[in-house]
UniProtKB/TrEMBL annotation:
The gene is pabC. This is 4-amino-4-deoxychorismate lyase. Pfam families: Aminotran_4. Keywords: Lyase. Belongs to the class-IV pyridoxal-phosphate-dependent aminotransferase family. InterPro entries: Aminotrans_IV, Aminotransferase-like, BCAT-like_C, BCAT-like_N, Class-IV_PLP-Dep_Aminotrnsfr. The keyword Lyase applies. The lineage of its organism: Bacteria, Bacillati, Actinomycetota, Actinomycetes, Micrococcales. GO terms for molecular function: lyase activity. It comes from Arthrobacter liuii.
Length: 309
């Protein structure tokens, strides 16, 4: 039996300006916390490489946006930054990385509405080593299946109480979709709306690419993602990669996308903050794109993404 991955916890506490370290092996939450009983809270997941957290500001901004959608008061960004710094430093001091090249930590920010009637929310930072599965999928690619999400692509505007653009703790459906995919022999899922639009993965953003020749024979590369107003979570990784790709001369596009657009693409990826850029090999059992071109484009975009902060 393998030993559990080391976990470092730092709670945000008004009495501890730099954060309050806690023992992850001991109980820390009350069973009456609304994050436990109702999933009433929000979170963000970031990647720290060599002790440096990637895209911290983008994640803090999205955390604030998710909290606003829930009418949830959360600690300010400076408090989060101090707690993040403390958690990463504590983890690295307690668990010196054996391989600096593989020194990746998953840094999770969680805030719940707290115990009913409490004056403050429950908020903490959790730091754990990144798993090998994510790194492996970056290299080997993934197989995905298409699943209906159960909403049309306009519902987010009509029904903001569904919180489709917020990163909430209510992830039971997303995890159920992943378990269903695994039972079908796939690695991941791309959700579709009931009106046939491509949305997102349970924990990722969808990207696709087309490469065409211009009139003078030079390649024109276009990177496309689903429309952000279709009830999907705005991806911090997608935003960072789009900025880097634009600077490198790529053309950019935002849907609307249908399943056939995925099938016709030269390459498709799922991108997220921890797994990073994972090429899609097959969708519903059908091979996607051209393997050699996909490999070339993945290497180029991965290099651009690695340079983002």
């Amino acid at each position: 039996m393998t030993s559990p991955a080391p976990v470092v916890l730092v709670f945000l506490d008004p009495a501890f300006p730099e954060g309050r370290p806690a023992d992850a092996s001991q109980p820390q939450l009350l069973v009456t916390d609304l994050g436990v009983t109702r999933g009433d809270g929000v979170f963000e997941t970031m990647l720290a490489v060599g002790g440096t957290v990637r895209k911290m500001q983008a994640h803090l901004d999205r955390l604030a946006g998710s909290a606003a959608a829930l009418d949830l008061d959360i600690p300010d960004q400076d408090a989060w930054r101090r707690a993040i710094s403390a958690a990463v430093a504590r983890h690295r001091s307690q668990n010196p990385p054996a391989d600096p090249a593989a020194d990746e930590l998953v840094v999770k920010l969680v805030v719940t509405r707290g115990v009913e009637g409490a004056p403050f929310p429950t908020a903490w930072v959790q730091a754990t080593p990144a798993g090998a599965a994510g790194r492996r999928q970056r290299e080997t690619g993934i197989d995905v299946i298409l699943l209906e999400r159960g909403y049309d692509s306009d519902v987010a505007e009509r029904a903001p109480w569904l919180l489709l653009g917020a990163k909430t703790l209510s992830y039971a459906v997303n995890m159920a979709a992943l378990r269903y995919a695994h039972k079908q022999g796939a690695d991941d899922v791309i959700f579709l709306s009931t009106d046939g639009r491509v949305l997102e993965g349970p924990t990722s953003t969808v990207l696709l690419a087309h490469v065409e020749k211009s009139d003078d024979g030079t390649p024109v590369k276009r990177l496309i993602t689903p429309q952000l107003d279709s009830g999907i979570l705005a991806g911090t990784s997608q935003g960072a990669l789009f900025a880097a790709a634009k600077a490198a001369g790529w053309e950019l596009g935002y849907g609307p996308l249908e399943p056939q657009d995925l099938m016709d693409a030269d390459a498709v990826w799922l991108i997220s903050s921890v797994r990073l850029l994972a090429p899609v090999n097959r969708i519903d059992g059908k091979e996607i794109g051209t393997p050699s071109l996909q490999k070339e484009l993945t290497a180029e975009l991965s290099g651009l993404f690695a340079g983002t902060r």
